[in-house]
Amino acid sequence: MGAKEGFIQFKRETPVSRDPSERINDYREIYKPFSEEKLNHQAARCMDCGVPFCHNGCPLGNVIPEFNDAVYNQEWGQAIDILRSTNNFPEFTGRICPAPCEASCVLGINKDPVAIELIEKSIAEKAYELGLIKANPPKERTGKRVAVVGSGPAGLAAADQLNQAGHEVTLFEKDAKVGGLLRYGIPDFKLEKWVIDRRIALMEEEGVIFSPNTEVGKSIKADEILNQFDAVVLSTGAAQPRSLNIQGDKYKGVHFAMEFLGKQNRVIGGEMAENPISAQGKHVIIIGGGDTGSDCIGTSNRHGAASITQLELLPKPPKQRTVLNPWPEWPMTLKTSSSHEEGAERIFSILTKKFTGNEAGEVTGLTLVDIEWKEKGGRMAFEEIPGTERTLPCDLAFIAIGYLGPAQNGLLQAFGVETMENSLPKSKNYQSTNPKVFLAGDMRRGQSLVVWAISEGREAAVKVDEYLMGSSSLPQKDSSFFEVEEQIAG
Ligand SMILES: Cc1cc2nc3c(=O)[nH]c(=O)nc-3n(C[C@H](O)[C@H](O)[C@H](O)COP(=O)(O)OP(=O)(O)OC[C@H]3O[C@@H](n4cnc5c(N)ncnc54)[C@H](O)[C@@H]3O)c2cc1C
Ligand code: SF4
């Protein structure tokens, strides 16, 4: 533990963001630099708890009190070694993780939690600056070949681990550039893409073979992959969006969120000249109150939308935890993202009834009704509030109500992987019903988070390594995590 009374002496402080009126003119990250002295104070707030709940809250099992201590003592080499031992890509999670570790930080019981995510990002960036993160190819090769299909955080983590174990890893990606939703989903104002490129360059230097523009199942058949490689990891994400299924949802101007966000990232990355979906001067309605919806707000504001409204079926959450949602549970409180700060109206407890349109087939409005949530037979159900039906002007609508599971394109079947009723593939300890094929990330667990995808990639890599070599010396989480995993996989 660094400073004995740091948590009394210093308040939580995180980087100031650029003014919303300024930052909506560009797509760069929104935070201003944070001094090392201030960071030292933040690390000093860690109490080095005997039972560090933060550590348990992190899906990767990040060893948080230890790296906080190293940062306090300015031992950057030690800090990055500790962080790298559990997390392949702290430069990603340090920027875009919702930080479940902070939600379970003991200090959060009656004070603001330790700024763990900021400390993580700072360790990663300082380590790059000092040249502490450099290519470290494996000393020996095993002669085994592994194909990883899908280059999101799950595939990248699996490839990184398996390469470190000495296997020859080829990572296939259908898109032009690797990164999955890090590249084509999460907006640049949350994660600038040079951060991904920097990591990919390192992995290439370490020996990972990247094959972009290669859709497995089309450019190369599943059988060829199975014949050419000793093991396969499928990490193709959960790309099947949930539909709204209301009248008028086929009008021009009604889109799934990812159609808009993915194209915007391609424009910024120089792959497209302009986004064919423009929010400029339009009344934008976003259906879905989650993070993807929030990303649509940030992007629509940058386009210069006339108005932005975000709709959420569920009631407005409280500002503070309630007695039914105590620490260290994930706080079910109102989240105000940086995109919300930039301007949007948020409406809760609202049901979408139908889109209206004009003769040209373009959307012009969205009819809504307020709802009331009540407990019925032990379950929460909603009722429409009579007399509240109204139609809002709408020139552009984004549906952001989640994902159902992997794309239904026959890929799993081609690899001989059986699925469950909910369309997710069956798996046991990351191994599919085809023993040679392993699964990781959103395609296995359903729509989730980057931190979980990295964790899945790492754990799947252990199982692949064991399958190929009989045992594995790759690091893995303790077995109690697997019990939870099995429950998820069903
Ligand atoms: C808009 C948006 C914003 C988000 N923001 C955050 C956030 O701020 N923080 C957070 O933690 N999480 C966020 N998430 C969730 C997070 O991005 C995902 O949980 C995570 O990326 C899942 O990783 P993955 O590797 O499993 O899959 P993905 O990232 O989806 O990657 C799958 C990859 O597989 C490729 N692929 C698919 N089929 C094939 C094929 N047949 N052949 C070759 N390649 C194929 C795809 O092109 C893709 O590149 C966000 C999600 C979205 C949609
Ligand atoms: S729970 Fe919070 S205070 Fe305790 S060790 Fe973890 S980061 Fe430090």
Automatic annotation (TrEMBL):
Gene3D superfamilies: Alpha-helical ferredoxin, FAD/NAD(P)-binding domain. Transmembrane segments: none annotated. Residues 145-457 form the FAD/NAD(P)-binding domain. The keyword Amino-acid biosynthesis applies. Pathway: Amino-acid biosynthesis. It holds the Pfam family Pyr_redox_2. NCBIfam families: GOGAT_sm_gam. PANTHER family: GLUTAMATE SYNTHASE [NADPH] SMALL CHAIN. This is Glutamate synthase (NADPH/NADH) small chain. GO terms for biological process: glutamate biosynthetic process. Keywords: Amino-acid biosynthesis, Glutamate biosynthesis, Oxidoreductase. The keyword Oxidoreductase applies. Residues 23-129 form the Dihydroprymidine dehydrogenase domain. GO terms for molecular function: iron-sulfur cluster binding; oxidoreductase activity, acting on the CH-NH2 group of donors, NAD or NADP as acceptor. InterPro entries: DPD_II, FAD/NAD-bd_sf, FAD/NAD-binding_dom, Glut_synth_ssu1, Glutamate_Synthase, Helical_ferredxn. It comes from the Bacteria.
